Amino acid sequence: MFEIKTNKSLQSTPEEMDLLKGKIQAKIVKLRDLSEYTAKVIEDTEAELLQIFKEKSFDMTGLFALKKDDLKNTETEEMTVQLRLEELIIENNKRLIITNNSIEQEEAKYQNLKKSLVVQQFCPETLPRPGVKKRKSKIQTIGLPKIFGGSLDDYYEATGEKIPLVIESCIRTIKMFGMRHQGIFRVTGSHVDMNKFEEAFENGEDPFACMTDGNQMNSVSGILKGYFRKLNEPLFSEEYFDQFMNITRNFAPPHVVSVKQKIDKNIGENIEFVVKARDIVRQWSEPHIVVTRYLFSFLNDLSQFSDETQMDAYNIAICFGPNLCPIPEGKDLVQHTNLVNDLIKNFLIFCDDIFHDEIEGPLYIRTDGLDAGHDDQVQEDVTKD
Question: Cβ distance 160 to 134 under 8 Å?
Fold first, then answer.
């Protein structure tokens, strides 16, 4: 019998395999984005082609054409458009097949690496987070990145900004005019105004830059909620949903209903919920972490004005829960709705403890200690942001 031996010097180390696994995972994410985009192009093109067929079926103008040449030219133009759309559908279907095949191949590689690391008992999630290197900003060459329905990582790749303008603008405006606005995030804004604001942000404009009062505060808060609701990958994505539900159910923090109670009881970064939540968050991308930290620091600040807004930590969690952490299909809605609300409430109250690592990116500046007579100071702080 021959004994097969492997030269260990030629084997990859667990650290190298884990690095490769991370690269493959990032590639899979990009391929899935491409697949979804291509499928959407096919869907839109097919709808456009179907519309041409419908118009051709009911268009009677050709029967009354004054000249045969006019009729011939019209038919030629229609055929050209139709052929172009058909070719576009065929080409994108080819691309979709190739992309989906690539996804399957990369997922197979990823699973094999994952199994190898498990066999070697290598678990990077338990290791200290390495120093995060700043990625080079890419120069945007193909229009503006998609805002509503887009991706945090794609926005960063296109602009070099970790926090999208729409988030900064909404939070800055609420901080100036809405920290004492009763029912903020609970009361729906004007759909007409919100559609107008969305269109402006998609065009790279800031419709709130010249806002001088809080008359449209419900629409501003609606834009912020809507942005997170429409992200192509929720802030708390399906990939981590079961982990978050597990720590919320089995490692709930001591019962506190406000940031003040948490401070008074002197509880924080050492409790199990915070430690386990921090471990999950460390697996996210830099833009994802920075945006989540910024949002929850703001919501933490806002919750401390609940006497005036009637929006304490739990009420804010109820408003944001479905937008930040949607319940995947097949999950029990009744059971998980309460867990999602608790998760968001706990992230809000313990955000300073969860986002303990130093990640380069904008930080929300709080309005701690300001009373109703210090609106000018609030505005000055926002300007500095």
Answer: no
